[in-house]
Amino acid sequence: MTPPATVDAGVVLAGVAAGAAPVGLEEVPELMSRVDHKYIVTADVMVRLAAELGDRFAVLRIAGRRQFRYSSTYFDTPDLLTFRQHRQERRRRFKLRTRTYVDGGGSWLELKLNGARGGTDKHRIPYDDAPAHILTGQALDFVSDTLVSRLHLTAPDPLGPVLSTDYRRVTLVDRSGTARLTCDSGLVCRSGDRRVAARRDLVLLESKSADGRAVADRVLRGLGARPVPVSKYCLAVTALRHRRANQWLPVVHHYLEPQPPGSGGDRPPPGSWW
């Protein structure tokens, strides 16, 4: 008997996006300071979620597109300081990345901060004039000044590229202007010649709102989904570098495709950040 074909979450999301009313980028709330909740759901749950949300949510459309490819490069110290701070659940911690909006256009250097209040603050500067895997002097000054002023932390030195991620995203926007829901599929993480991908039938959702009580969170809980406290960067480091992170292993095993034997070691190539 032939096994059933795997449902492609990206195709399902394209259908969800096609059925929603469009909004322009200028109508999407920035929410640079917010509370985030992440969920990993099947394509079937995604369809039920979209039906429950109904016309309360619209979909971001730019230049006729409703689904966009994102490419990010994450930076860390040689001993993975920011990964360790997240693993240890430090109250003051950060992540640093460049993000390229492959379809929507533009690149940014983004610094995501977690502070004592438990929320997330994102700070960014345009980064169109520099390679995505390079930190310029201006970038390092931005990181240093922001960490000192916002978290009273000294920027670690050195910082270099550790891994990259690529995925496709559909963004659903609460018409009230108080929240949005990003829906990601097709995640691929790379570090040097090592690679790991997410399961094709799963969607990574991130509910972003000012107070953490968005309607999407309520609907997801009603559908049996529960938040998972994890990031793409930490998942990728755990899987590609085989770093100890017991709290994330259930998500790694559920969300990411199994890696074939000999697909990667626990250290980057000699003399390379990657």
Descriptive keywords:
32% strand; Hypothetical Protein Pfu-838710-001; 8-stranded antiparallel β-barrel; alpha+beta; 274 residues; 7 helices
Can you describe what's shown?
The protein is α+β, with helices and mostly antiparallel strands and 274 residues long. The chain has helices spanning 9-18, 43-53, 81-87, 137-151, 215-222, 232-241, 249-255, and strands at 22-23, 33-42, 57-60, 68-76, 93-101, 107-114, 120-126, 160-174, 179-191, 194-197, 202-209. The chain has an eight-stranded antiparallel β-barrel, surrounded by six helices. β5 (93-101) and β6 form a beta hairpin. α1 packs parallel to α2. The chain is globular and about 50 Å long. It starts with 8 loop residues before the first helix and ends in a 19-residue tail after the last helix. Residues 265-272 have low confidence and may be disordered.
Residue windows where pLDDT falls under 50 for at least 5 positions? 265-272
Q: How many strand units?
A: 11
CATH fold group: Hypothetical Protein Pfu-838710-001
- Walk across the major sheet and give the strand order: 2-7-6-5-4-8-9-11
Largest sheet: 8 strands, antiparallel, barrel
By DSSP (H or I, 4+ residues per run), the number of helices equals 7
Class computed from helices, strands and strand pairing: alpha+beta
Name the CATH class: Mainly Beta
CA-based shape = globular
User: Mean pLDDT, as a whole number?
Assistant: 90
